[in-house]
Amino acid sequence: RPALSPEFQKHLDAFMTSRTFNSTSGRNFNWAIHKHLMFLQDNGHSDMQNVSISDIKAFVTQIATTMSSSSLRDIQCYIRQFYSFLQEQNVEVPDCFNLLSYHVPLQHKVKDYITNDELDKILAQIDTSTALGKRNMAIILLAASTGLRSADIVRLKLSSIDWEQGEIYDVIFAISGKLNAASRTAAETKIDFAVLPPACLKILYCRTAICSGFSSSRPLKRISTGLW
After folding, report:
1. What order do you get walking across the sheet with 167-171 strand by strand?
2. Using an 8 Å Cβ cutoff, are 126 and 133 in contact?
3. What pLDDT is stored for residue 9 in this prediction?
4. Distances in whole angstroms, Cα of residue 187 to Cα of each of 144, 162, 172, 177, 180
5. CA-CA distance, 74 to 16, in Å (whole number)?
6. What is the DSSP secondary structure assignment for residue 194, as one 8-state letter?
7. List of residues 6+ apart from 89 with CB closer than 8 A
């Protein structure tokens, strides 16, 4: 990698020897600080004497365009510790603590949705000749057709289904389980049978099959025949 000026290299070496790092964190600190010092050097600095907040801000702005939010947050942490060390050594540097402490929100990648082809492949693996397979088919088709969460499907009861109107009334429970009765009523949603595949309706229509909900294994023997 490109060589630093003697003054910059001296500061980097002094910082690295002042702390105990494991092999991974040591490489990360060394790489990040070297990158920062090279940025300063490429912009006309050979020591810390005239480095300003604007220089540090320009460095953060530049790396922010090429790095993930988690990497940017780590580099800010490394550089912040480096400048704190220089201040402890009475090296005149700008007070950049607030700048390098700026909260960088982590970005979480949104998982890809399952395509129709992938759904067909999943359904093709289910053995619908068994009671368990019929139940699994109903669960997956409900989720794929309505967007219901697994927690909602597991809690689905016979009383949630209006056979006369052809609708499912599903109470959306919070994962934390802290919704009170009023909140649960307000969170009630209606699902029309029109969005459900025929295969799913076959299982739902067998009332004894889901009288204890999808989470129970007791009704499985009752749906082992007559649905396919």
Report:
1. 161-162, 167-171, 188-192
2. yes
3. 96
4. 20, 18, 6, 13, 11
5. 16
6. G
7. 14
CA–CA dist 12, 86 (Å, integer): 10
Question: Which alpha helices (DSSP H) does 125-213 contain, by range?
Answer: 131-146, 150-154, 181-186, 198-205
**Residue 215 identity (one-letter amino acid):** S
| Global pTM value | 0.49
Compute the mean pLDDT over every residue in the chain, rounded to the nearest whole number. Answer: 75
Q: What does the pLDDT look like over 30-59, one tens digit per residue? A: 999 999 999 999 999 999 999 999 999 999
DSSP assignment of 37-96: HHHHHHTT-SSSTT--HHHHHHHHHHHHTTS-HHHHHHHHHHHHHHHHHHHHTT------
The residue type found at 74 is: D
- φ, ψ for residue 42 (rounded to 5)? -65, -20
Query: Region 198-209: what's the mean pLDDT?
Result: 48
Per-residue pLDDT reduced to its tens digit, 153-174: 777 777 776 666 666 665 443 3
Residue 219 has pLDDT above 90, yes or no: no
Amino acid at 109: K
- Amino acid identity of 56? I
